[in-house]
Amino acid sequence: MQGEGLITRKETMELTGATSNQLQYFERVNLIKPTRILKERRKRPDVYYSWTQLLEIKAICKLRQETSLQTIRKILDFLEEYQINKSLRDKQIVVIDGEAFWVKLDWSDFGRQISALKVADKHNKGVGQYTLIVVPALKDLEQEIWETAKQSKTIDIKSFTKRTAQTKKTA
């Protein structure tokens, strides 16, 4: 019996673009702790992720396309140092020329320029300072996951929709 509301490791890799090694790394460094369910007559447990974890993995993978793991670690260290929730799925991080900015989405300054907090830099200069940046449209993680799921030959879309219906509301 599969965990209710949980996404398999295989589905997670397909939906997020993460490799098996990346998922293992995320677990090893305590970024993402999957659920393990041991089934009868099996030596190894099956590995599952929640909808929230799926979004977190997708956010990390998208950020990794723009910057190094070292910079991502600096972002997480910054958030931890200032006692800010380390989750990246609910933060808009923009990387421009090796500098990482956290754009807070209260929309009070929405327009052509948005104020952003600098959270990482290759040379650690200006970290913690606000700056103005121009950003493209944000918040496409969920849409990308659903598009991938619908096009997938691996994922049963009806089952996936049912399993994620409740967890999406709390993400």
TrEMBL record:
Domain spans labelled HTH merR-type: 10-77
Name the Gene Ontology biological process terms: regulation of DNA-templated transcription
> Any idea which GO molecular function terms this record carries?
DNA binding
User: Which Pfam family, any one of them, does this sequence belong to?
Assistant: MerR_1
Cross-referenced InterPro entries: DNA-bd_dom_put_sf, MerR-type_HTH_dom
Q: Which residues form the signal peptide?
A: none
Name assigned to this protein: HTH merR-type domain-containing protein
Q: Which organism is it from?
A: Coleofasciculus chthonoplastes PCC 7420
